[in-house]
């Protein structure tokens, strides 16, 4: 019997080569048709075949865990959990400290005065809130807007970690001392951290001042705008609107 390595004639070589090409073509077509038929957005009805495991819906699970969270005493005083809001595929995530009264009321992050200023900053970058993701270190409001306690941060931070790993943004902007120090695991003051990128779990992180601080200290807007411009450069956004006045409330 002739084996593949010792064909009997040039015609035989041609025939075998053609058959190999045909077979490879067929396999590529099969692979392509498999690829396009997998639609991850819709679970497909099963027709009597063996059970196929649904892909886990990690966002739904996280939402459910946060909504029902009773890990700390803030769950007793909150009106609403403030999970986070925006684009789950965002390249840029803003992380603040904790919900205030307006956020607690509406269940949405940064919707009060500090939120309006953050919205202005986002617009000055040439973006809209729907283009980015906005969340906090704590998901529930500390009564009277007091500072988050270390234990509350310890118990709540795993939710933020899950959120950030699902979004996997290119850049995180940590607003204020609590966000920056918590994510970077440092006691260095925000004034010394801001102005340059740090790394959080392989993601570039820019610490900057919190919008609420800017409401009390408007001159610090200049530094925030410097930090924001570094972010814009990092994610390739034009700086056509680079005016400090445009981030004014
Ligand atoms: N301050 C924060 O840190 N987060 C909010 O959501 C609102 C105000």
Question: Could you walk me through the main structural features you see in this protein, from its secondary elements to its overall organization?
Answer:
This protein is an alpha/beta fold and 249 residues long. It has a domain at 72-234: 3-Layer(aba) Sandwich (Uracil-DNA Glycosylase, subunit E), CATH 3.40.470. 44% of the residues lie in helices and 10% in strands. The chain has helices at residues 10-37, 58-67, 74-77, 101-106, 113-124, 150-167, 177-184, 190-193, 211-216, 221-234, and strands at residues 85-86, 92-96, 133-136, 171-175, 198-200, 203-208. It has a 6-stranded mixed beta sheet with strand order 1-3-2-4-6-5, with helices on both faces. Helix 2 runs antiparallel to helix 6 (150-167). The longest helix has 28 residues, at 10-37. The radius of gyration is 26 Å and the shape is globular. Residues 1-6, 22-46 and 241-246 have low confidence and may be disordered. Uracil (URA) is lined by residues 96-100, 103, 109-110, 112, 114-115, 136, 212.
